[in-house]
Amino acid sequence: MDNRGVSLVALDMHPIIDLHVDGAGEVDPNFDLVKGHGGKLLHEKMVETVAEKFVVVENDRKLVTRTRWKWISNVC
Question: EC (predicted)?
């Protein structure tokens, strides 16, 4: 149990999750989004796969005019 009283369990103990709530790395005006690309990506995809419902919550700090543009422009 973490310090907020939420029980933490392994996916093999609970192979179906009612709800998975997560954030996005970027969201464009069409609500197309990019989910991060860091070390947690595999874990997040595993949880998303077994969730009955998946909800993305974001605020205006993640709004961009074009998704992935900052990564593409940093490479070029």
Answer: 5.3.1.6
